[in-house]
Design a protein that fits this description.
The structure is a homodimer. Chain A is of the alpha/beta class. Chain A has helices spanning 11-14, 17-27, 43-50, 66-90, 129-137, 160-171, 204-212, 221-232, 243-247; strands at 3-9, 34-38, 57-58, 61-62, 95-98, 106-110, 122-127, 141-144, 147-149, 155-157, 176-182, 201-203, 237-241, 255-258. At the A-B interface, α4 and β5 of A face α4 and β5 of B.
Amino acid sequence: MKNLHVIKVGGAVINDPLQLDHLLKGISRLAEPFILVHGGGRKVNEWLRKLDLQVNMVDGRRITDGPTLELAVMNYAGSLNKQIVSTLQRYGNNACGLSGADMDCIRAVKRVHPTIDFGYVGDVVHINHKSFSMLIDHDITPVCCAITHDGKGQLLNTNADTIASEISRALAPFYNVNLWFGFEKVGVLEDVNDESSVVKHLTKGSYLKMLADEKIHDGMKPKLHNCISALESGVRTVHICNVEGLLGIPKSAGTKITLK
Amino acid sequence: MKNLHVIKVGGAVINDPLQLDHLLKGISRLAEPFILVHGGGRKVNEWLRKLDLQVNMVDGRRITDGPTLELAVMNYAGSLNKQIVSTLQRYGNNACGLSGADMDCIRAVKRVHPTIDFGYVGDVVHINHKSFSMLIDHDITPVCCAITHDGKGQLLNTNADTIASEISRALAPFYNVNLWFGFEKVGVLEDVNDESSVVKHLTKGSYLKMLADEKIHDGMKPKLHNCISALESGVRTVHICNVEGLLGIPKSAGTKITLK
């Protein structure tokens, strides 16, 4: 099986045009195929403020009402996705931007919650692995934004980390999938205030031990849970690292997570 | 060779959600493959007004400055393109939205004019026919917005009629291409005030005669010039018709234009 890298880049890189350009220039030269998944950064909040609209949050989670969804689609699937694709093209990488509606590649259902109405937020139910394989087999790099659809004409806002994990799991039977989460820190830290305390290798066992010892920062728990779950579905390795780590792909960087 | 329809839908349909849905539902059932090219409608002007920005026009043509380009990308490649794609998906048609940057499918150069600076307006220089063929061969419907790129990382605003013509010409060696321009009138009219005066069939010869007799409305001249030029490059037929005409594809409707 061919190697495939699924690379998720988050808010901090997206918000910094120079760093984003630097990253895209670097990964455009990757010898092995990859899929890029990008978060949205702070653009939607900036637009909501510009239009005097409210940023709705409940328990630290965004509520996607109608105007927020429209701005998310305009920013994530529109300006941001096309900026990334045209930059990759500039650096000689034949990229193709995708929302979940394009080629029906990511289908989701509107989230139902007993007490909170999250609005137009979608939970992934199906990845169309054939759409991704077709592009990869033609040396085209899929670039996914965090917009999905429900198959009934409704677009939905979906977490980019989840999209990266779900794509990785769905493609694991066909490729040696390595999943990379780019974030602000150099990796998972033993001491959140000490950048030199990176955990170089984490297994399911050592993760559960750190969890029991209360050594995992609250903010990292859902991310790491996601990673372990991806590994259990056949993904080979997961890495959590910063931009410099992503620039070194396929060389291991930050925290490498494997099942055993 | 397979038949292929290139269908351009313009502003009036785009501005009317019910009519757009009706059209997409209808063409989603087309038995033969098609490429949809859509204009932008009035959304960008609405957004410019909402943001207290100027709509810049010189000689009736839009000047695309930086903020206008950003809004064009957000609206055309973002909200509008994804709404069309998700609606086609709803009706069972496996659509894929594209800007010119995606799969490098439409490359353009920034327009240089001796006296007017049009800003970020692009003239098409290359259509990547392989990208379109790959999708069509996989029963995927390309849905193109009027945003192109220059291959150096710059997105550009391009006329949707031109995009439809250029795609048709580039695919003519590989398919029997029929180009359809949807617009407000039932077809080319002998008398612009009389909807029953449709010219059912126009050839290059009869077009030149009408032109010499000053029977062609000024607004129709560039459109018809475009049509004749497409036919000279190997496109089989061009039709100019309204939404009802598009809903009848492949049945001839409105004004059918052929070389002879």
